[in-house]
Design brief:
It is a single chain. It contains 18 helices and no strands. It is mainly alpha-helical. It has one domain: MFS general substrate transporter like domains (Growth Hormone, Chain: A, Up-down Bundle), CATH 1.20.1250.20. Helix 3 packs antiparallel against helix 7 and helix 12 runs antiparallel to helix 13. The longest helix is centred in the N-terminal third of the chain and has 35 residues.
């Protein structure tokens, strides 16, 4: 007689780590191009404006598939959906090694964007399936930290591979790692009600926090579009996602171009902003959780206080970056040269961006059966904004430098915060979403 499967205590946190690894691989593949941009630019030959077109090709498919992938995940489930999408984006990442022209890179980025769009809707949906409301901010924060960890790892790993074996080998290695992740996901991820290795206590704790409509088919987009909470989630993404793409696609290029940092030095310090982003992602859930558990705050108060604080901090940091030549003499009085000041400000901005926690919002407002769709809609609109801004950034940087870009970014977080206050209202209260 076969023995019963051995239960795994605190299984939900293993799931969170597995999701973190998925998002880490996603961003490793995504960031490979930004790490290699200057090297490829010299080898293949394209301008900053063409680089903006290449990055916007990614966002064009990414934006459309963000919504589509969210609906697919709500219909076929997180486990099966992630298997398909991770396999697809890994192959697309490897296809960059075959590129010979700017158009080839646009095609490869278009394919990568279409497949990678599922990572955030799937991760947020999985966190909603596996965690009670009070823990979802931290769970999504851990999952989302992988996006920054992937970017952090990309700098030394992709950089080292390109130095020894060339930039084409770097794309093959990064994509291959995703294919190696698939068997682990297939073995470990099942919904808690179906999992063979979950303890009875943990299953009861998770399922007792489910809404009355969980388990029903996903609601129609018409139902969701009539809810102001949906538009609050969308507004937050539209206002902050373009900054995500700026930070991921342009930060290393900004430091290298503006301050003429040698490539070897850039590879040594370029991971710092992304490590700060990972820390910020975890802080987006850990700080409110501390406030709730230790200080007795409600989820709503804790999340909004955290978000408001980092919004104000980010505003100040972007203003410093926009006027860095004017601020540099003041920094010099305390022994900071302009390059060090720029690295510190960029690193702090990355922390604030992660701590804002824009992708957490749907999990704090909607039941699991709607989270993929709402997250996908927000991602679609945020990516459309990203496509537009990426094309604009390339031309603005060529004509006027980075200062105008940083000035626009400065107020975006505060505007997004007030959009959440007005349109969503209370965070941490799951709304009932009825109707097909």
């Amino acid at each position: 007689m076969a023995s019963a499967p051995r239960p795994i205590k605190h299984l939900r946190w293993y799931i969170a780590v597995l999701l973190c690894l998925a998002s880490e691989l996603n961003y490793l593949d995504r960031q490979a191009l930004s790490v290699l941009a200057t090297q490829i630019q010299k080898d293949v030959g394209f301008t900053d404006a063409q680089y903006g077109q290449i990055t916007s090709a990614f966002l064009m498919s990414y934006s459309v598939m963000y919504l589509v992938s969210g609906r697919i995940l709500d219909m076929i489930g997180t486990r099966k959906g992630y298997l398909y999408f991770v396999a697809a984006w890994s192959v697309a990442a490897m296809s960059h090694a075959l590129a010979r022209t700017p158009f080839h890179f646009q095609a490869a980025r278009f394919a990568l964007g279409a497949a990678e769009a599922a990572v955030i809707p799937g991760g947020v949906k999985a966190a909603t399936e596996w965690f009670p409301v009070r823990e979802r901010a931290l769970a999504v924060g851990i999952f989302n930290a992988g996006t920054a960890l992937g970017s952090t790892l990309a700098v030394p790993l992709i950089g080292a591979i390109s130095l020894y074996w060339g930039w084409r080998a770097a794309f093959i290695v990064s994509g291959g790692l995703g294919l190696m992740w698939l068997p682990l996901w297939a073995w470990l991820y099942h919904r808690p009600e179906d999992h063979k290795h979950i303890t009875a206590e943990e299953r009861t704790m998770i399922l007792s926090d489910r809404g009355a409509t969980d388990g029903q088919p996903p609601p129609s987009m018409g139902v969701l579009l009539r809810m102001k909470e949906t538009w609050g989630c969308v507004a937050a993404r539209v206002l902050t996602d373009p900054i995500s793409y700026l930070l991921n696609f342009w930060v290393l290029k900004y430091l290298e171009d503006q301050f003429h940092i040698p490539r070897t030095t850039l590879l040594a310090v370029g991971w710092l902003p992304y490590a700060a982003l990972a820390t910020g992602n975890i802080a987006s859930g850990a700080i409110p959780r501390y406030m709730v558990n230790t200080l007795g705050f409600t989820v709503n108060r804790a999340r909004k206080l955290t978000t408001f604080t980092v919004s104000v901090t980010a505003l100040v940091l972007f203003l410093v970056l926009a006027r860095i030549d004017s601020v540099a003499p003041l920094a010099a009085r305390v022994g900071l040269d302009i390059t060090t000041l720029a690295i510190i400000c960029v690193t702090a901005v990355m922390f604030c961006h992660g701590a804002w926690g824009n992708v957490i919002l749907p999990a704090e407002v909607f039941p699991a059966r709607a989270v993929g769709s709402v997250t996908g809609l927000g991602g679609l609109m945020g990516s459309v904004a990203g496509v537009i801004t990426q094309r604009m950034i390339g031309h603005v940087v060529e004509g006027a430098g980075y200062a105008p870009v940083f000035l626009v970014c400065a107020s975006a977080y505060l505007i997004a915060f007030f959009a959440v206050v007005v349109l969503i209202g209370e965070l941490g209260r799951i709304r009932e979403v009825r109707g097909a």
